[in-house]
Amino acid sequence: MSIMENLTMNEFRRQVGEYINQTYYAEKAFVLTKGEKKVAALVPMAMLNRMTELEAFYAQTLADKTPINSSDSEATETNQEAAS
After folding, report:
1. What does this protein do (predicted)?
2. Residue range 36-78, pLDDT digits in tens
3. Where are the domains of the chain?
4. What is the CATH number that goes with domain 5-68?
């Protein structure tokens, strides 16, 4: 896949089919701009799927690192003492 190319909203509107074809067949990615502002992106599905996978992985990694509540750890300690 290539680096994202800037594309004005007006140009995108004029040739929407052409840019969708380039995204699908050539796997090109575009950043849609309005003036100097970046407003959206047109990306191949493979790129979107990969970003979604990475987002899920990152969310799970953060969840795994979240500290346990003190009430949860107290319950675990009580259960361990009872098992001894």
Report:
1. Antitoxin component of a type II toxin-antitoxin (TA) system.
2. 999 999 999 999 999 999 999 998 888 888 776 655 555 555 5
3. 5-68
4. 3.40.1620.10
